[in-house]
Amino acid sequence: MDVLRGALRTYAWGSHTAIAEFTGRPSPTPHPEAELWLGAHPGDPARLEGDGGERSLLDTITADPEGQLGAATRERFGDALPFLAKVLAAEEPLSLQAHPSAEQAMEGFAREDRLHIPISAPIRNYRDRSHKPELLVALGPFEALAGFRPVARSIELLRALTVADLDPFVNLLAGQADADGLRALFTTWITAPQADLDVLVPLVLDGAVTYLRSGATEFAREAKTALQLGELYPGDAGVLAALLLNRISLAAGEGIYLPAGNLHAYLHGVGFEVMANSDNVLRGGLTPKHVDVPELLRVLDFTPTDESALRPRSAREGIETVYDTPAPEFAVSLLRLDGADLGHEMDAPSRHDGPQVLLCTEGSVQVHGKSSVLTLDRGAAAWVAADDGPIRLVADQPASLFRATVGI
Ligand SMILES: [Zn+2]
Q1: Residue 43: what pLDDT?
Q2: Is 283 annotated in the active site?
Q3: 356 closest CA partner among 392, 326, 319, 309
Q4: Does 51 score more than 90 pLDDT?
């Protein structure tokens, strides 16, 4: 077991304070810090702090896959860590996006290879052959858009904005109030000529202002989000598309699971995110980056979902709360020590005997592996090789620790 030093990624939407404060570094930072990668992704592997200095987690796994990953993980996923864990801090909204299914990723990767599009090219959609299901657990209040809202509710929202120019679109949706209607409306908006969007989007924003000034509260969050997105991305079809998505507010400890084809955008907040080890993103707007509309339409799932369906069920058993997701690549749980647990060595066996990434989010906890021991304070992470588990935990004050491991 070693301290895992995450790879810090700076993106324009990141925060000058959140990750620095979480990991105990001075803030504000000179650059907006967006993600701390706690994994072995070849694009930016985390580093292990050992006695002989730092070394890359990726190199460590490559040199000793059996000891680091264990036989069961190697058999299922080969000699690579199948998941990537991150601390994510969004000061501003991320792009509207969706991720492909496993089948679509295989097919898309092969197709773009045949077209000789370099892996690093900005127009490349598929940078690897993997799907990218993702789970985000909020570390504080977290705001997001995810999944197409049940249609009747979206019609109520669009009508509440009282924008006459929206009427033909609302009627289109009302005439076919299902996934096909959503596909038709989304396709119309995302392929609309810019000149049309430059008229319609400002009218919708005016509608949002009027709605908020009226003192109405039912769709206040949705209207405010439209205004925020419209200010950042004037005339962007994503501002309209966002009106069709569930507007989700998570409290600390609450999670959201995004399966293949789910259209989503993180808006604001800090979270612990775990995903299959992939970079495959199809963007749908609200970004200066490449948007491939036909490919996005191919992967999007327009089936309306209630936001509760996107929240993984979690149940506490002993010290562990497991976030239930169908992803084979990862499993995420929160280990919490409090009350009568304090001062005792508590067993924390994992449902999978593969490797573990730990992240302390509260207090200070001593982690005992089979052959090593480490103390983690808030903001610190650790790598537990497969041959060093199962772990036991000791804390004197209430403490919380996220665990990412391989799915079962
Ligand atoms: Zn995503």
Answers
A1: 86
A2: yes
A3: 392
A4: no
